[in-house]
Amino acid sequence: DAGITQSPRHKVTETGTPVTLRCHQTENHRYMYWYRQDPGHGLRLIHYSYGVKDTDKGEVSDGYSVSRSKTEDFLLTLESATSSQTSVYFCAISTSGGQETQYFGPGTRLLVL
Amino acid sequence: GIQVEQSPPDLILQEGANSTLRCNFSDSVNNLQWFHQNPWGQLINLFYIPSGTKQNGRLSATTVATERYSLLYISSSQTTDSGVYFCAVSNDYKLSFGAGTTVTVRA
């Protein structure tokens, strides 16, 4: 599982509240990713990071921000959660530059009421 | 981004049957991966296969990059093969996923 953990694993929150999801890895991989998974859409990239303090937007970045202050942690923040952000969120790492295998964390199930 | 189409969307198999899943993509890629999501939601990487053929036990995959498709073969299916199979492709850091093929293997 490439030493990837996500916290929390489940969260229920209300519309308008801020939410931060954490991804932690133990193997010092440079590249980290946040995806969301919704029925009928597969997984869609939200943001990714190619190093400490180096991040970029993915396909569905509106309403999300990220931070990476140290190699092992990649945080995803919903500044003001909306019901459309109810989803399952997966963190992933890749062993090098996106050109090799991606390994996924266990996921966080988020419900925004 | 690159468009990824997977077929069929759903597949029901009797235990012991063989099957083929297909992934078509709209642009040239230098990264293609197959994943299995089990019924508990865990995503497992099956193959990194931007071209050529690979085998791992009862699973094998072939990618014909020049024709923009990949095939995943499941032989002698088992109930533990149930779940959703995703194809994902990229020509940069960012993987684009298909919608998946849901496989149900019945005992």
**Residue share in β-strands of chain A:** over 45%
Q: What is the overall silhouette of chain B?
A: globular
Name the average pLDDT of chain B: 95
Topology pattern of chain A, helix = H, strand = E: EEEEEEEEEEE
The most extensive interface between chains reads: A-B, 25 and 23 residues
Question: Total number of helical segments of chain A?
Answer: 0
Description:
The complex is a heterodimer of chains A (113) and B (107). Chain A is an all-beta fold. In chain A, 0% of the residues lie in helices and 58% in strands. In chain A, the strands form two sheets. In chain A, strands 2, 4, 5, 6, 9, 10 and 11 form a seven-stranded mixed beta sheet that branches. A four-stranded antiparallel beta sheet of chain A has the order 1-3-8-7, with no helix packed on it. In chain A, β5 and β6 form a beta hairpin. By secondary structure, chain B is mainly β. Chain B has no helices and eleven strands.
Summarize the structure.
The complex is a heterodimer of chains A (113) and B (107). With 113 residues, chain A is mainly beta. In chain A, 0% of the residues lie in helices and 58% in strands.
Give a quick set of tags describing it.
heterodimer, A: 113 residues, mainly beta, seven-stranded mixed β-sheet, four-stranded antiparallel β-sheet, 11 strands, B: mainly beta, six-stranded mixed β-sheet, five-stranded antiparallel β-sheet, 58% strand
Layout of strands and helices, then pairs:
The complex is a heterodimer of chains A (113) and B (107).
Chain A: E1 4-7, E2 10-13, E3 19-25, E4 31-38, E5 42-51, E6 54-57, E7 64-70, E8 73-78, E9 87-94, E10 102-104, E11 108-112
Parallel strand pairs in A: 2-11
Antiparallel strand pairs in A: 1-3, 3-8, 4-5, 4-9, 5-6, 7-8, 9-10, 9-11
Chain B: E1 4-7, E2 10-14, E3 19-25, E4 31-37, E5 43-48, E6 52-56, E7 59-64, E8 69-74, E9 83-90, E10 96-97, E11 101-106
Parallel strand pairs in B: 2-11
Antiparallel strand pairs in B: 1-3, 3-8, 4-5, 4-9, 6-7, 7-8, 9-10, 9-11
